[in-house]
Request: fold
Amino acid sequence: MKPKLVRTVAALRRETAQWRRDGLRYAVVPTMGAIHSGHTQLVTEGLNRANRVITTIFVNPRQFAAHEDLGKYPRDEDGDVRKLGKAGTHLIFLPPPHEIYGEGFSTTVSLAGPAKAGLEDKFRPQFFDGVTTIVAKLFIQTGADYAMFGEKDYQQLKVVTRMAQDLDLPIEVVGVPTVREEDGLAKSSRNVYLSKIERQQATAIYRNLQAAADKIRAGIIPQNAMRAATRSLMAQGFKVDYVTARNAETLAIPKHPGEPLRLIAAAWLGKTRLIDNLAV
Ligand code: AMP
Reply:
């Protein structure tokens, strides 16, 4: 099926208004394009819940710092449309930047809680302001019943869930488990930056998180297991931003034995920053 493409909020709303008149429920899948099977899994899960799925493609300038990879972020509109059509997306919203950030744009949401956990926020201070601004706008522009987000970006999932709840946005945020390559590397649009050798080394993040999860299940103190994982990654040439065990809901540093934990990592391999996480 060929999805319909819309580039303006007005055109988007004409489509969704008809869906509402027809009594349909619909999900939105926000992406930055460079579509892979992690993204199409979100579409599949959206189709499991709703009658229609909108995928948005917008490389959001406000979530990149000046030194980050906005200029070289992979873009492939034709390939994306084809893959999303195959996955069953009904509508693709591809707004140009001026459609999203008009002249004089000056509003962001002020965040605390999981957005200030000292993870991505510490290393990319502008990131969640940018993410929640675009996500809030997409929620309002689409008026969707469900929003599909990957567990791959675990802190983002928690921040967006919190925002939707705190602002009474009438949308259910649904987390979808991480889709991985056969060797365990989490699928990511940024994996194309890896050299052949780095691509082989990159699986160490997932392997070390798995090893740490096994140790914690066997009774080793989380902090010690994470320290060992950090050392192992550093020995394999990674520059580690963080490798840490956090409360799976609040992302706070765990205080009580038996708390639900999530192991969360971000590390550089050469010029590529990789993130991953795992439930214990
Ligand atoms: P991105 O285009 O990378 O900003 O990602 C768009 C959405 O796809 C986010 O909700 C991501 O968490 C999700 N996503 C990206 N990679 C994966 C993956 N490997 N598995 C599941 N979801 C993913």
